[in-house]
Specification:
The two termini are 32 Å apart. Strand 2 and strand 3 form a beta hairpin. Helix 2 crosses helix 15, helix 6 packs parallel to helix 13 and helix 16 runs antiparallel to helix 17. The chain has a 4-stranded mixed sheet with strand order 2-3-5-4. Strands 6-8-7 form a 3-stranded mixed sheet, covered by helices on one side. It is 53% helix and 7% strand. By secondary structure, the protein is α/β, with parallel strands linked by helices. 48% of the residues are buried. Among the domains are: 273 residues, 3-Layer(aba) Sandwich (Collagenase (Catalytic Domain)), CATH 3.40.390; 177 residues, Neutral endopeptidase , domain2 (Neutral endopeptidase, domain 2, Orthogonal Bundle), CATH 1.10.1380.
Length: 648
């Protein structure tokens, strides 16, 4: 019988009682050289490389066939070919920007600016706002447009104001100067662009506020939107982006004060400054698709400076990434046909059923949850929709004109198709079968407005899921991930949505207070942690609280589900470990990974997930872990019961 434990990764000089992550992954961490094109690398990345290679092979096969025009094979083959045609790309050089630069050059007023910004958004260049359409959080049966803050080039608003980033800001201006020069435009605009981005960043909400489901729900009528942003000609923007007036009647404005700040900047700053800003948005976005000198300069800042990554990815990998980004479902159809066996889906369905049952049993006995909230929590749990493997209906890209010799045109056409898809469905009933990830994506998600958990085919492989392995490691691996995603339905933000996906307060005041107290305790616990890849820096417990609750709940309920599975098939001792020990080993294997120090620091600022070692070692909150490994008060993983956090 296969255990699913990767023994060669173990560091036997470390005790699991002191550091579960180090025990399970330590030898891998010590002996694995970070790939030169990566800022971090681990279990997720290894699977992503595998999926990437599989998709690459499928694309090459597609490109070698004479598939009908508009078919998935023809489209992925032609799009990839256009990215790999370096001879033509070098021949065109920065001249590929000529038409878009001419649009910007013709701007003479604020309405012109908004119209051209919308036009460039249709072509794949972000402007002063980002947007998407999905179920209205207070009318989850219908789609609404969500509008978000944008307009800055550094990773986060804090990069524009914190002293720690002063040196980086200077390097950013130098990078702008060089890249604009390579594009054949005046690099002296960099200081102007930086000043304008700094002003926009001052109006941005921070990342903790942006993850607040209640604060970011601001459903406004068109009249209210115009009152919020005086002087912003929304009709001009709609004309550029190709949207009907109805899409803003109403819309959800996630950060309202940002639009007020933008409106003030639009009134105060000269059109020449805004033209420089939009020119930079264009050049910065397009550089990765232009001649080699521009690609290298962009990577030098975005990769080396921001994340400490020595080398850019091989061109074929970047080409696969572009196909995934623009027409991912077309590649997904090809991937599923060859890489997702039906019996894997059947076993996953059983795992999900046991996780849901474990949550049900848990909710029925939670001491801090009162009867009124408990009943509604059970209703929400019963309404969960699991999606496994791949969608029932694939997106149809056949109307997109993709040519093997027109990379920029392909990007523009595919982006316009997606913009039209998003805008056209505003106000329509939601598509309950829609997926927001492709099946070849190594990840999973919970969608609160649809109350669904989704597990793409590509994550259903070792170390997450081994269809041939015994239960313990599978429940610790993919079981913990399933539990994590279900847990998002009841974390500090997901718990604000009911079983139908509507943003409504279904908790009693007493139960919300009890939950918040536990969440604050977990925040304080993570605030004290330093990632091993960036010692001397602390985790932001408030930023990561949702994912930490997901991890803690996923591990706790995953263990309960494992016990349910053992009611039918008890787990034997294998590889010198009991079933219960292998469960926790399976959890820690999932988080095997390492990061360059620069990337680790960047992620502490922007990533709502904790570092991998902290995620693995969240097990110290479980008395079941202490019992499985006989943890004592002298051990590194020991937490007194009064200090342990147990939400579910």
């Amino acid at each position: 019988m296969k255990s699913g434990v990767t023994l060669e990764n173990f560091d036997r000089s470390v005790r699991p009682q002191d550091d579960l992550f180090g025990f399970v992954n330590g030898t891998w961490v010590k002996n694995t050289e970070m790939p030169s094109d990566r800022g971090r690398f681990g279990s997720f990345d290894k699977l992503r490389e595998s999926a990437e290679a599989a998709v690459h092979e499928l694309i090459e096969q597609a490109a070698a066939t004479s598939a009908p025009e508009g078919s998935p094979k023809r489209q992925v083959g032609d799009l990839f070919a256009s990215f790999m045609d370096t001879e033509r790309i070098e021949q065109l050089g920065a001249g590929a920007l000529a038409d878009d630069l001419a649009l910007i050059d013709g701007i003479a007023s604020a309405p012109d600016l908004l119209r051209v910004s919308g036009q460039l958004t249709r072509r794949g260049v972000d402007g002063f706002v980002d947007f998407y359409s999905v179920a209205d959080a207070k009318d989850s049966a219908h789609n609404i447009l969500y509008v978000m803050q944008a307009g800055i080039g550094l990773p986060d608003e804090s990069y524009y104001r914190e002293d720690d980033h002063a040196e980086l800001r200077a390097k950013y201006v130098e990078h702008m100067t060089r890249l604009l020069g390579l594009a054949g435009v005046d690099g002296g605009q960099a200081e102007t662009v930086m000043a304008l981005e700094t002003r926009l960043a001052a109006a941005h909400w921070d990342r903790v506020a942006c993850r607040d489901a209640v604060k970011t729900y601001n459903k406004l009528s068109r009249a209210q939107l115009e009152e919020l942003s005086p002087g912003v000609d929304w009709d001009a923007w709609l004309d550029g982006v190709g949207g009907e007036a109805r899409i803003l009647e109403p819309a959800n404005i996630e950060q309202p004060s940002y639009l007020t700040g933008f409106a003030e900047a639009l009134r105060d700053e000269p059109i020449s400054a805004w033209k420089s800003w939009l020119t930079w948005r264009l050049v910065s976005e397009r550089a990765q698709f232009l001649h080699e000198a521009m690609v290298d300069e962009r990577f030098d800042f975005a990769g080396r400076t921001l994340s400490g990554i020595p080398e850019n990815k091989e061109r074929w990998k970047r080409g696969v990434g572009l196909v995934e980004r623009l027409i991912g479902d077309a590649a997904g159809q090809l991937y599923v046909e060859q890489h997702f066996p039906p019996h894997a889906k059947a076993r996953m369905e059983q795992l999900v059923a046991n996780l849901v049952e474990a949550y049900r049993r848990d909710f029925e006995t939670l001491e801090w949850m009162g009867e009124e909230t408990r009943a509604k929590a059970l209703e929400k749990l019963a309404a969960f929709t699991p999606k496994i493997g791949y969608p029932k209906q694939w997106k149809d890209y056949s109307s997109i004109a993709i040519r093997a010799d027109d990379l920029i045109g392909n990007i523009a056409a595919a982006t316009a198709w997606e913009v039209d898809r998003m805008l056209s469905r505003v106000g329509d009933p939601i598509d309950v079968d829609e997926w927001f990830m492709t099946p070849q994506t190594v990840n999973a998600y919970y969608m609160p407005v649809m109350n669904e958990i989704v597990f793409p085919a590509a994550i259903l492989q070792p170390p997450f899921f081994d269809v041939d392995a015994e239960d313990a490691v599978n429940y610790g691996g993919i079981g913990g991930v399933i539990g994590h995603e279900i847990g998002h339905g009841f974390d500090d933000q997901g718990s604000r949505y009911d079983g139908d996906g509507n943003l409504t307060d279904w908790w009693t005041e007493q139960d919300r207070t009890a939950f918040d107290a536990l969440a604050q305790k977990l925040i304080a616990q993570f605030d004290q942690l330093e990632p091993r890849d960036a010692p001397g820096n602390k985790v932001n417990g408030a930023l990561t609280i949702g994912e930490n609750i997901g991890d803690l709940g996923g591990l706790t309920i995953g263990y309960k589900a494992f016990q349910i599975a053992q009611e039918q098939t008890p787990s034997p001792e294998l590889d010198g470990f009991t079933g219960n020990q292998r469960f926790f080993i399976g959890w820690a294997q999932v988080w095997c990974g390492k990061a360059r120090e620069a990337e680790a620091k960047r992620l502490l600022t922007i990533d709502p997930h904790s570092p991998t070692d902290a995620r693995a070692n969240v097990a110290r909150n479980l008395r079941e872990f202490a019992e499985a490994f006989e943890v004592s008060e002298n051990d590194g993983m020991y937490l007194a019961e009064t200090d342990q956090v147990r939400i579910f």
